[in-house]
Design a protein that fits this description.
The complex is a heterodimer of chains A (432) and B (127). Chain A is mainly α. Chain A is built from 16 helices and no strands. In chain A, helix 7 packs parallel to helix 14 and helix 11 crosses helix 12. Chain B has a 3-stranded antiparallel sheet with strand order 1-3-2. Chain B has a single domain, classed as Orthogonal Bundle (Arc Repressor Mutant, subunit A), CATH 1.10.10.10. Chain B is globular, with a radius of gyration of 14 Å. In chain B, helix 4 crosses helix 7. The chains are: A mainly alpha (432), B mainly alpha (127). Chains A and B meet through helix 2 and helix 3 of A and helix 2 and helix 3 of B.
Chain lengths: 432, 127
């Protein structure tokens, strides 16, 4: 085999990977006929037909459609996020944001396919991937609008005093936090690709539980702190929005949401394990198989935290960014609401509508960066709590094996074990 | 130009080629030569027919030395029935009409199928 033909064979095998597995036989069959075709233009035409067939089959599959959807969304995000003026540190950061995140989001599915296997085909998995990517892409322009405001101190007057009072050093030279942001977003995208991949062994029901809980927690968080994370609720519409109690409620939800989702996923998988071993008298090993209850539990908890954090920061940052651009939205959000939390502010703002508007802008812009802390903290909290729960569950399961209660319905973990006798009788709860 | 059953003139020519000797397994290149279709047209047709359960395929058992294994095709029972039904419709002159697309310099076999599907398919029906 000559070097050229060897290169051609390698290119052919690589190109074949673009074709759905069920169609590769056809392309290979066409290639296999090529040596029978007389050499010259006719054989070339035959091979060209093979290339056309590959392109056709590759284009017909969903992967190409997804790639085109992503390209359109990424182009839209880049267009909206690309800073107009090259001056300023924020502009440099924002351009790096756009380029790196688009490249990372485009490249991760390709790497993920090698590492995690093909993406899951369930509707929840597809929605999760599309929603996760949409949230990250939406975050890019929102974050950039906020950073442009933070990096542009007013030239003087009351607004400069407000800027110094509220924003302090402003955006600053924060490459480190920028790198953290990019790494965190890449990890979020990778985590979403992993949980929705076929090889991860995460059941569609677990994805549904985690996603549903995440959306619920994220929606509550957004309702309480739509204008950034602060020690007080930033929703100007909430009565007593300066109250720390609502923020405390949000944090309790952040803790309970993933744990609750983890317990639900654990129980579902435990029930499924029991139902699949109707004749077995021994305790199913819930922690040792792919798709095990422990894995489902951790995945559901992790997913809850990821979805809630992503939803809250994308929606929150989007609201803040929209508020910067649209006066009507700012006026609607701050319906006569005065910022009383910062000392001396009332005096500055008295009878000065422009300063009042700016105070709202700069306060929200200052409260937005701590969203990044949420992104880092939520999954860590979820993993810590759920990991602990799984360890306890496995220890209890092991004790159930050794103890007198073995085989008689000993607790399996965070919740009571499903009734094994009932499972054997076919009356286990319906599993999605 | 599609027939009432949804087959294009090219598809009819492939059905006809496979119907000539329904029990025989045929190579893709042999069918391409017989129908005059290019590989980029023939194989999508075969794929569609296989998806509809009208054509079945298998890999060659013993390839010639130094050559890759070739894939062989033939009509299934459903394919045979569809081909016969198509030929009957064509024989009644109700389905296949001269098509502008085929008339624009398409392969001779396609033209033959488009202009007179009965001429192509009817001999097979009598077998």
């Amino acid at each position: 085999m000559t070097g050229l033909s060897r290169l051609g064979a390698v290119a052919q095998r690589a190109a074949l990977r673009l074709v759905p597995p069920g169609r590769r036989d056809w392309v290979e069959a066409l290639w296999a006929e090529a040596p029978e075709v007389p050499a010259g233009p006719r054989r070339l035409a035959w091979r060209a037909g093979g290339v056309a067939l590959m392109a056709r089959e590759a284009l017909m599959q969903r992967r190409i459609g997804s790639a085109m959807l992503f390209a359109a969304a990424a182009a839209l995000a880049a267009w909206a996020a690309w800073p107009g003026s090259p001056a300023g540190f924020a502009s440099s950061v924002d351009r790096v944001d756009v380029i790196v995140l688009v490249l990372v989001l485009a490249g991760l599915p390709l790497l993920g396919r090698r590492g995690f296997g093909p993406p899951g085909r369930s509707r929840t998995a597809r929605l999760l991937r599309v929603g996760g990517y949409a949230a990250i892409l939406a975050l890019i322009p929102a974050k950039n609008v906020i950073e442009q405001v933070l990096d542009a101190p007013p030239r003087g007057g009351t607004e400069l005093r407000l800027y110094r009072l509220i924003a302090g050093s402003g955006f600053g030279n924060s490459w480190k936090s920028e790198i953290v942001f990019l790494v965190v977003m890449a990890l979020y995208a990778a985590a979403i690709l992993w949980v929705t991949a076929q090889r991860s062994g995460i059941a569609p029901a677990t994805l549904a539980v985690g996603t549903g809980a995440g959306i619920a927690v994220g929606a509550v968080l957004y309702a309480i702190v739509p204008l950034g994370v602060s020690n007080a609720a930033t929703n100007p519409w909430l009565p007593g929005s300066d109250s720390d109690a609502l923020v405390a409620l949000a944090w309790i939800l952040v803790l309970l949401g993933p744990v609750g989702a983890g317990i639900v996923a654990y129980r579902r998988q435990a029930a499924r394990a029991s139902a699949s071993q109707p004749g077995s008298a021994s305790q199913p090993d819930l922690g040792s198989q792919p798709g095990s209850a422990a894995r489902q539990s951790v995945a559901a908890a992790l997913l809850t935290s990821l979805v809630s954090a992503l939803l809250a920061i994308a929606a929150g940052s989007g609201t803040i960014a929209a508020m910067m651009k649209a006066a009507w939205l700012r006026n609607w959000l701050y319906h006569g609401h005065l910022l009383a939390g910062v000392g001396g502010l009332r005096l500055l703002l008295r009878n000065d509508p422009a300063a009042l508007a700016y105070s709202h802008q700069i306060t929200a812009a200052t409260d937005a960066p701590p969203f990044l802390i949420m992104c880092v903290a939520f999954p860590l909290i979820a993993l810590g709590l759920t990991g602990l729960g799984v360890l306890i569950a496995r220890a209890e399961a092991a004790a159930g094996h050794a103890g007198p209660g073995h085989g008689s319905g000993a607790p399996l973990g965070p919740g009571p074990a499903p009734d094994r006798a009932a499972g054997a009788g076919g009356s286990a709860p319906a599993l999605g | 130009m599609a027939t009432r059953s949804g087959f294009s003139a090219q598809t009819l020519s492939v059905l006809a080629a496979l119907h000539d000797e329904p029990s025989q397994w045929r190579h893709g290149y042999a069918m391409a030569t017989q129908t005059g279709l290019k590989s980029g047209t023939l194989y999508p047709i075969l794929i569609r027919l296989a998806d509809r359960g009208l054509v079945e395929g298998r890999w060659q058992d013993e390839p010639r030395p130094g050559r890759p294994r070739r894939r062989l095709y033939r009509l299934t029972a459903d394919g045979l029935a569809a081909a016969r039904s198509e030929a009957a419709l064509a024989g009644a002159g109700r389905t296949v009409r001269p098509g502008a697309r085929a008339a624009r310099g398409g392969p001779a076999a396609v033209l033959r199928a488009a202009r007179g599907g009965a001429a192509v398919l009817m001999p097979a029906v009598s077998q």
